Amino acid sequence: MHQKARDLAKKFIGNGFEIGDRFAIWAPNSIQWQITTLAGQLAGAVLVPLNTRYKPTEATDIVRRAGCKALFHIGEFLGTNYASMSTTIAVDHHVNLNSVDDWQAAEVSDTDLDTRIGAINPDALMDVLYTSGTTGAPKGVMCTHEQNLRVFDTWSRGVTLSADDHYMIVNPYFHSFGYKAGWLAGLIRGATIYPVPVFDLDAVLTMIQEQGISFLPGAPTIFQSMLTHGSRQDFDLGSLRCAVTGAASIPVQLVKDMKHMLGFDEVYTAYGLTESTGVVSLCQSGDEFETIATTSGKPMLGVEVQITRSDDTIADCEEAGEIWVRGFNVMQGYLDDAQATAEAITPEGWLKTGDIGHLTKAGYLCITDRIKDMYISGGFNCY
């Protein structure tokens, strides 16, 4: 993978990409998605992932506002022709992910590539993920190389991900959960990655059995569907070791069933948002079932969490208020939107999450509500 990423990184440079230039990917989970992202980032370019549910007008808007120079896309996926839709989006380069070898570029040497890599500073932007955040308008969240690597080094250690794990990624790569807590964390720890482009329960159970999947993060509904599958007993799920999930509240029984019926040794819940580079807090190994189900763990080391009343004063222990976050994980801001950035981050560096919660006496974070009206459909925020 490293050599393939280096070879493709040379094509980025050979096509005039400079540090800070942006490229978009519009495709489902795949190894080539990972290679292309790494290639662009080796060249100093900034990833802008596109939701595969976007309509052409939505994708066009984000590509235009992000100023992307290239759009990497799949051909057809689930009856949608992304190649055809991509031709309507104005960029310098349209590249099919399955045909990156055909992307023509000026010749670039290994020395030139190494010089470029050496010129990338830790505080250079690594990606811009568009999110609805705490309002309904998509905004580009800017995060650096240092932030991403530090957050997911911390996260992956916390959830005990290791080079021995076979990590199945069912969460979409255009989202932090699939991209950052997914293959990036796996790369940091040296785990073996198995991308899943479409969640099909029978196919997932078969892969767990055949590939010895040990690490499986996902929404609570994924584990509920596994538990209620009529033929679950026909599959050998003995390799499963660790699950990571998250929601405002998870039934305690689900956590118990994940351990006792699905066989997970460890079950972690966590909380984060795109604006926090994906992570704020995380449960710990050995936490009680009820703690895992009803809290989102403790803040990561180096991250502060403050519960704030509507008058901006600090709430008491176990008193509900807006969750504010400060630390190395707070985004650099929203791309080309100083006003929205100022509304989201205080002069003292506190990120206003828009989520309501409280801290327990033991320091665990409980999420209870949102300030804005929102519901979640298929894992996506809807306003």
In short:
By secondary structure, this protein is of the alpha/beta class. 31% of the residues lie in helices and 25% in strands. It has helices spanning 2-14, 31-42, 56-66, 82-86, 110-118, 145-158, 176-189, 201-211, 220-228, 252-260, 289-294, 338-344, and strands at 22-26, 46-49, 68-73, 76-77, 80-81, 93-96, 125-131, 139-144, 166-169, 192-195, 215-217, 242-245, 266-271, 281-282, 298-299, 303-308, 321-327, 333-334, 351-359, 365-370, 375-377, 380-382.
Salient structural properties:
5-stranded mixed sheet; disordered C terminus; alpha/beta; 12 helices; Rossmann fold; 31% helix; 383 residues; single chain
Describe the structure.
The protein starts with a helix and ends with a strand. α10 links the parallel β12 (242-245) and β13. The chain is globular. α1 packs across α2 (31-42) and α6 (145-158) crosses α7. The chain folds into 2 domains: 2-120, Rossmann fold; 140-382, Rossmann fold, CATH 3.40.50.12780. The chain has helices at residues 2-14, 31-42, 56-66, 82-86, 110-118, 145-158, 176-189, 201-211, 220-228, 252-260, 289-294, 338-344, and strands spanning 22-26, 46-49, 68-73, 76-77, 80-81, 93-96, 125-131, 139-144, 166-169, 192-195, 215-217, 242-245, 266-271, 281-282, 298-299, 303-308, 321-327, 333-334, 351-359, 365-370, 375-377, 380-382. The protein is of the alpha/beta class and 383 residues long. The protein contains 12 helices and 22 strands. Helices cover 31% and strands 25% of the residues. This is AMP-dependent synthetase/ligase domain-containing protein.
